[in-house]
Amino acid sequence: MGALIVHKPDDHIDFLMKSLEKYKNSKQSLAWNSFIERENNLNNTSAPKTKQQLKRDSIPQNKREEKPKNQDRPSSSKSNKDIKNILKGKPIIFVGGGPGSGKRTQCEQMVTKYGFTHLSAGDLIRAAAKDSSTEKGRYFNEAMSQGKLISTEDILGLIKDAIYETADKASGFLIDGFPRRIEQGIQFEQDVAPCDVLIYFDVPDEIMTKRLVKRGETSDRIDDNEETIKKRLVTFHQETQPILGYYGKQGKLITIIANRKPDEIFEDVSYELKKLVKTQPVVPPRDPQLDKLKNKKIIFVVGGPGSGKGTQCERIVQRYGYTHLSTGDLLRAAVESKTERGEQLNALMKEGKLVPMEVVLDLLKENMIKNADRSKGFLIDGYPREIAQAKKFEQLIASCNLVLYINASDATMTKRLLHRAQTSGRIDDNEETIKKRIKTFHKETIPVLDYYEKQNKLEEIDSESEPDNVFNQVREILDKLT
Question: What is the CATH number of domain 80-273?
């Protein structure tokens, strides 16, 4: 049973018959993991291993990219230059999502609406393996029958051939099941082309599990049971998080909350794809209500924990009539609202997942528009935390006028937070946690500060002294702005 779960053969009976045949003439006794081991483990079992062999064997078998015995490995007949030329003007979209996330349904809708070609790495491998009359078919059939992982080079060869064959009639390409690791993404960029975006369909684990268990009632798939599903989800998250981080840092990650009705999900997908499709405007249609924000000053307020930025924001609101919007407060209010969005955010937070940037932007935009008539400007803190977020804000809402950096030394911030801990009762107001928070703040903030300094929008405030003295510095800057 273990081997069936690991290798997932199309023909279970044939797989077991072949596996038993391999052990027929072996002196080894059968064990629970006999059929999980590779074929070459049957040979030379008593031979001593070198250090190099031991090191290689420390890698789990199911994580290796092994080559079948057949050395005449098929390669793509298309050069990298050919592929890059035919892809000009055609968006490449990686599609990610866990088992049961509904990504295939969304791919079908994208194909229908935009004329994209959908390429599934798994489907391409299975299709290649079925044709035993060709060298390529025999190669992949052998690899799959031996339960070996297909190498990055071989998968890329299949994808390149599929792109070349369908390029004339495709307006773009949806690729799912690839990349599964960062190095695969890098190899794709080198051999094919950089992707335009990665669309990630995010669904809480309990909902994916529920969907797969329900599917198991009729699918007869041996891996559609709750225990196996949980293992698959753990593996999925381990593989996926680095990929999401890699493309997120490039500003190419689009996260879609996908525990909704398919049509609602596709509405969000369509909105995100407008800027990639030639027939649509490059910039998403501007919300007419954003006109209310004309002539309203937008100030990002940046400061570490204990820097005193909250106190300064309160004083700015009182003196200048600005509206203070904290992304943390907005998210908490959304969760407490018990709306559909609030429930989705609550589920994400319970699982410790990051809230998608698009959701935070929507909350900011809604609250800015709501307060526009009675506000002279906006103080926004907790956003942006990275350059990609800053650019997205400029694209979808407006450019900021100023970035106020309320700067205190690490020692001062630590001292203030420890003093607050005496009465706050907050579990994160202890010295060890404070140091970690401050370190994270600096790591996130420095690139953003550099970004705005190059635009001459950064003003640094020395907040080591008393609040009144700090506010005097703030006033000098804001009086010039207004």
Answer: 3.40.50.300
